[in-house]
């Protein structure tokens, strides 16, 4: 057994996670935040709403880790058994917390303006052996327990409630409690080279890395992220990670997209903001997903004007000015059509740049000539147009994602070369 | 300790899951599929790329479950240690599998048309104590081990590769191997009632449920899913779950959206297909996300024509025909503007129905009069228009999702009442 200092486990509670009805996004967020303050989440466990399963996981994880963060199982309904279990596990009795009670009343009377039920009031009940963490975004309070030198924190599973508690209380408390050696990450993104070829190219670099710095390959959507992680108390570690990262960047310079852990839409948005250029989109096969990625960035209205989702051919001709003879001659999925779509939306919206997509995402709609996964993407900047053909071979969801990511990368290159 | 028959654990391997760089979507999919054939996933564990962590998790999970499904850690690069570990754990030696080798060669020579590296060939190496599961979608084979009556299956972490193996090999093998009592789920979706009020309304129903049927509350985006789950070998269980489900439906009839586990975009798409009506979208604050949800459904081009992402006001006036005086008088986020947007896009695209959104998603852009979370949504059907005001109080991502879900629900009601 390793020394468990600064090691954390995350336990998520709820049958919905086990029957696959809900995807757990909390754990990734929590791990990121903990990591940044030097706590290493080495185990994540999901268990159902069963008494024995939860009890066992508390026992097991406290043998592995000194910090156990628990989410879920605190709702007002009868399938939630976490609170009575924690009360019994830590040997307390239930009392009403005045702060939590005031919060529940405030939320119902002032925010929701709705009558309260007895079960809402009971959300303010907590075991008398915990420190209460107030919930500024909901009715269920968090609870901080300690037992045999292990810290247990129970929080609601609702993401924005959990995030509020973590940022306001839990992370600062953990930081003030432990001497935490920071974890140093540097991440870069490459495009256009496979994982194994990348590995072959940088194998000498990798084998020469000092023991306290690790390299990881994170392939995703035709791109590969490379991450260096330095851990430990060496005061020069941050500098050493920097120096190694510079070497790594030099070795992958020709396939480097960006030397930080940012999304493509964030990189493109940053470039547009810098150049003060505006962008428009004309999407057929991506069906609004490109616009969604672009507008998921706060402040994107500064450079993104909008666009057209031209799913039907009548929208390509009517709203974007694509000639209908061109579609009948070359097809909707063709270089000619996507280029006209990009030029059309750029002119109609008066944007500096435009991107357009047309393709067959599947499962239906493919032919021998143009099978599922056939995609054309065009990018335009004033009088320059570039287009590219892709053949993806996956399911609808992945084909849409790949088209969007490759399109954003084409846009990035167009901006850099324009 | 419970009897572990028909109980499964999922182990996911990879530091990227623990530092929060990747969200695990595999486990939810696997749990759903296993559940459908009567295998209950009662634990999911994520561990990093460390030898001891993986080894410990194999020991622990085999004490909890008779089926252990493992994903990740099988890539061609040096941070992957799973295969040698499994070889040592099950006491085998590495051999080259001829089928897997032929597959790797096929993929490089025929599909990728790229030269092969030694590390690609080594993907065909497997411990001689496993049954190989061929990977039709990638280079890393899966491996099936058995030890002390426990089955261990190791698969790649790439979702579409894992899914291919599960569907073609793993699920059929598990089904033929065990006598599996089916799990019966019935799910319905409610909107417009809080979790605690719903619980209060159906508490007598819930407490009268037979022991082998459980009720769960799954709140999400302002709606609550209710799920009945029946487990066990009672031959009439399926019928009993049906009868209970009918009772439940009667009790929530006024807030019922749909009596199956479907997404709102799927429900709306089904209604449009049935009515043979076409739909157009005009999105400001949702920035293409509504279009994306609609077009994520295969075959949506049968009823969805397309739309306009009118992020800038100039696009609202230029492409949708919203009068600029109307925007300057009432603002872009107003009943007047969203109604004109919906009518405008419906006319321009010649659609039967339209939906439009305008709001302030945050974190910036709010004012005292119109704080972050202020949203207007309109739906139109020929000469009928309905609009509604919402106040969300969350972060950008959640505000966008809530706007889209509430918009789809308004669209659903408009279709049903038109």
CATH top level class name of the largest domain in chain A:
Alpha Beta
Helix share bin of chain A: 40-55%
Q: What is the fold-level CATH name, i.e. the topology of the largest domain in chain A? A: Molybdenum Cofactor Biosythetic Enzyme, Chain A
Most extensive interface, chain pair and sizes: A-B, 113 and 114 residues
Number of domains of chain A: 3
Largest sheet, spatial ordering of strands of chain A:
2-1-3-8-7-6
CATH homologous superfamily designation of the largest domain in chain A: MoaB/Mog-like domain
Number of helices of chain A: 16
In angstroms, what separates the terminal alpha carbons of chain A? 57 Å
> What fraction of the residues of chain A are assigned to beta strands by DSSP?
15-25%
CATH architecture type of the largest domain in chain A: 3-Layer(aba) Sandwich
* Class derived from helix and strand content of chain A: alpha/beta
Q: What integer value in Å does the Rg of chain A equal?
A: 26 Å
Oligomeric organization of the protein chains = homodimer
Mean pLDDT of chain A: 91
């Amino acid at each position: 057994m390793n020394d468990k200092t600064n090691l954390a486990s995350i336990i998520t509670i709820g049958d919905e996670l086990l029957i696959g009805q809900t995807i757990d996004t909390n754990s990734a967020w929590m791990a990121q935040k903990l990591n940044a303050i030097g706590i290493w989440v080495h185990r994540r466990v999901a268990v159902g709403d069963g008494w024995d399963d939860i009890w066992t996981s508390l026992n097991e994880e406290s043998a592995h880790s000194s910090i156990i963060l628990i989410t879920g199982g605190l709702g007002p309904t009868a399938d939630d058994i976490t609170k009575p279990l924690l009360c019994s596990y830590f040997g307390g009795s239930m009392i009403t917390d005045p702060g939590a009670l005031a919060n529940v009343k405030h939320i119902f009377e002032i925010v929701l303006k709705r009558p309260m039920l007895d079960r809402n009031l009971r959300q303010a009940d907590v075991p008398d052996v915990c420190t209460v963490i107030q919930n500024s975004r909901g009715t269920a309070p968090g609870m901080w327990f300690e037992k045999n030198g292990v810290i247990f924190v129970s929080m609601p599973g609702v993401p924005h409630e959990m995030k509020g508690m973590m940022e306001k209380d839990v992370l600062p408390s953990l930081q003030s409690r432990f001497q935490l050696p920071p974890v140093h990450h540097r991440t870069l993104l490459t495009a256009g080279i496979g994982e194994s070829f990348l590995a072959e190219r940088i194998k000498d670099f990798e084998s020469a890395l000092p023991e306290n710095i690790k390299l990881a390959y994170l392939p995703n959507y035709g791109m590969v992220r490379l991450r260096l992680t330095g851990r430990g108390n060496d005061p020069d570690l941050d500098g050493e990670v920097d120096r190694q990262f510079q070497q790594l960047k030099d070795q992958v310079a020709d396939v480097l997209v960006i030397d930080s852990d940012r999304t493509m839409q964030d990189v493109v948005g940053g470039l547009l903001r810098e150049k003060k250029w505006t962008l428009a989109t004309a999407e057929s096969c991506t069906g609004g997903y490109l616009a969604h990625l672009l507008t998921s960035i706060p402040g994107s209205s500064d450079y993104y004007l909008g666009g057209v989702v031209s799913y039907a051919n009548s929208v390509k001709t009517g709203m974007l000015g694509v000639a209908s003879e061109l579609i009948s001659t070359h097809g909707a999925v063709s270089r000619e059509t996507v280029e006209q779509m990009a030029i059309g939306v750029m002119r109609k919206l008066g944007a500096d740049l435009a991107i357009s997509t047309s393709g067959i995402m599947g499962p239906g709609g493919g032919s021998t000539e143009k099978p599922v996964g056939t995609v054309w993407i065009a990018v335009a900047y004033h009088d320059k147009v570039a287009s590219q053909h892709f053949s993806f071979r996956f399911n609808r969801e992945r084909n849409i994602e790949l088209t969007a990511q490759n399109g954003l990368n084409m846009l990035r290159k167009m901006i850099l070369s324009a």
